[in-house]
Write a structure and sequence with these properties.
7 helices, mainly alpha, single chain, globular, 207 residues
Length: 207
Amino acid sequence: MSATDVVYCMLTALFTAAAVRALRHALGSRSLGWRSRVDHLLHTAMALAMAVMPWNCGPGLPELPQTVFFAAAALWFPLTAAGCPQRSRLTTTARRLPYAVGMAAMAWMTLSMTGPSHEPVAEGLPSEHQAVHLSHSAGETKAGTVVTGVLALYLLVNALRSLTRGMPRLRSVSDAVAISTGTRGTYGGFWDGSTALGTVIMLLVHP
């Protein structure tokens, strides 16, 4: 097993565990509102997609519907904050923004798998057409690198912040208590940071 396979196995284990946890939150607590329940279901869908993405195992769902789905999920998080009271709207939007960026990163990865830069150049094209095609692809690659870098940097900063916040209290806070009280809790921050860090790695190494 290569080092890349080991990283992929770790990512699959991480996102599978994250999917199970998000699904348990969505279905296991009766006190959750409809918005929080949809949030957790979207996290479940994203984590499951990320868990299988490194392996490219056979024909799965078409990439374009996935891109549309995760782009809509990215819009869901900031737009649903508009229903909050005016006082807390800005705070709620800022708190939900990292989730929106994570969904946007997932949409970007699925979009990059279908982009024209992945299409081979036809052998029969005249040389000037090949030059135009290669120049266009190079421009898209540069722009794509910038988008990937911005997404990865934002998620990395949020991952480090989530993982280091409240670290001394990590052993004293129960995840079950966090679920029952409806708060994020220290363990919630750990999971947010871990999945954000896993998303950063996927952005940088995904096929």
